[in-house]
Amino acid sequence: MADILNEAFGEDGFDPISWINNACNNKATDEPLEKFLAELEMRLQLNAEDIEATLSDNSAQAMRRIPFAIQEIYRLQGDIQGMQDQVQVLAGSVQRDATDARGSVEHISQLHLVKANMENACNSLKEATELSGLFVKVEEVFAAGDLPKVAEILASMRRSLSLVGDVPEFRAGRQKLRALEDRLQTQVEGSLGEALARGADDEAMRKLCGLLLAVDRYGTIESLYVSTKMAKVHALWEEVAAAGAAAPEGAASWLATFLSRLLALLEAEARWAAAVLPGQAAALLGALCLSVFTKISKAARDRLAPVTHIAPLAGFAREVGGFGRALHELLRDVETGRRREVIALVYAPLEDKVAAYGELEAAQLAADLRAALPPAAAAAAAAAGDEAEGAVSRLATSIRPAFAALHAAVERCNALTGGSEVRALLKAVDGELAAYLAALQSAVSGLGAKHKARAAAGAAGGASAAEDGEDIANVLQLIKVGRELSAAVGRLEAALRTAVAAAVSRLQALVSGAAPAAAAAAAAAASGTPFASSSAPSGGAAGLSGAAEADPVALRLVAGRGERLAKLMKLGSGLSDPRFMVLPGSVGALDSFSATVQSTVFDVLLARVASLLASLPVLPEWRKGAEGSAHPAAPLPSFNTYPLPYVTAIGDHLMAMPQQLEVLMGDTGDDTSATAAAGGADASGGGAAEWEELAAEWLDKAVSGAAAMYADAIFKIGDLGQQGGCQLATDVEYFVNVMGALHVAPPPSLLTVQLLAGAAPEEFAELGRGALAEGAADGPALRALAGMRRIALEPVAAAPAQS
């Protein structure tokens, strides 16, 4: 209990009610509650008294210690005051000593300055005394041919003139010295040029270069070195160009060979310079590389200009990238600005082709897609009937190679541009795919026109059902072509989305690690924030470091304040927007192609129907029993009429359509088995079910379209007698029965004609009103039918208003 008391009451959030309940829960089970609570209260009281007594004792002890503490504080304050007085006295003493010392130091400094000036004056007098003698002595040494001694004297004269050159007696000394240095240079540069050309005696070259360096003529060394080595580079260029003139890939192949051999030459020159002139090795190598690539960069551009195929250019891009990285490592000790200038010149010919990648890719895709298209597709579609099936087959077989070429464009883009030109890739693929789809659409249109013409001619000449079936089977294959084409476009779009996302992510990581400022500026631009001068690199490669300086893709991305990178990041962010379309032009062209296929198939399916219905409005049977006709109305006998041949022909055509569609579905067996092999039995069953559903959809669409055409033709009849109406009702009943057999609902207009076309004039209005009230008749069709029968409908016209 004591532990409970000590622990519980020391908590900040002590709750007395919870504490009492807890204590009651922990009591012995056989102990009465009243007794437990009484003991608990007593213990609490005793604890409180103990605490009070302890507090009282502690307070008394504290009060007794307070006077002693106050006395101790007073004592410490006195000690502190004494120490402060002592510190002030010491500070005053130090200040006086510092003032005295400052005066002494100033006097010593003045003495030191006087001494230094006197020494300088003495040295100047000595140099002036020696300089006059050196001008005389140097001529003697020149005459003796001791060029190292001449260089030493000229260096000494340069130092002397720097001291006494402003003295009137020596004002012409600098001009004389320059003339002497030119004289030395003339005697040295001939020997040095020959030695550099031979490249044999390194020690002699080192001495000759030392003579020129002694008189500050490094520029002469650099000029001689570069001109000598440029001759070797030119000879190498001519040799490789002549050997590769007949290469099938053109300059792209032999330029790679030239760069490989040029790298070996530059590495050898770097080793020579490091051994002979270690202090000037980096500068000499940088000057040589700058001169070499300034000259060959334009020549390489001219040689690459005729190359339009991306494959050899991609190989050249791979080789020049490796060359650039190796050269960057070779020039690691060269001044940064010059190194970046050289690397930019190395990549300049490649960048010209990268900038034109969109046009190159579009041209290559156009050629590949033209090769995939069937030759003269439109002409083949308009050829003889035996060629119709082959034309559709050629359209279908062109899809696979065409889209293989489109997918290959992604690899070409990565190979040539490293993915930096994915925007140009999308534009090229979209434009050429749209053109390919337009060509297919034109071929389908020609094929449809030819089939419709054959159907019309066949209906007029009594063509066989087998011929009609062949035409329909051929044109129905276009549905398969359209669906395959839609699936191929979908796969291509998904592949392009994946490729673009991967390229943007990879390029962003490439630049963000090497040039954070460029990446930040590009991110700001992609989000709509203008570039800030403090966050974007001012000069392309200036924002890069390390190996990224030699990466052509990284250099390309940060060029122009990172504008290309900003556009890529904006493109990448747009991929997450469901409204973003990778191939907007192709999607529109695909929609147009699909619409053309739909209309072509629909027109060919119903071409025979349209031909049979063309003469329906002027058939003489409709005027039988009409007023003023050659067959006036008379009481009709009770007998069954038979449908006319036109409608039975239409019915036969429609009844044969399911079988024709089933034949087409059977042609997909190979595709279904291939799908099953790839995806299992479920894929096979799903594909078959999909085609069955499509066949049912087209059957419904064709029969419904035929019904609409039939209704339109009926309502073009001018005069309809009662007997003709009975015949028409019989024809329509036959047609409706055909629709029922095909499980297609007839339109209300035909049901209205079936119900009322043969009604007696005195019963027509009443029957029409009742049919409208029951919803069994169509109002516009009823009014049109009444006009054909020359029956007034005033009582019937009010029926819709009442309903």
UniProtKB/TrEMBL annotation:
Membrane listed as a keyword: yes
GO biological process, one term: Golgi organization
Subcellular location: Golgi apparatus membrane
Protein known as: Conserved oligomeric Golgi complex subunit 7
Xref: Pfam families: COG7 (PF10191)
The entry's keywords: Golgi apparatus, Membrane, Protein transport, Transport
Keyword Repeat: no
GO cellular component terms attached to this protein's record: Golgi membrane; Golgi transport complex
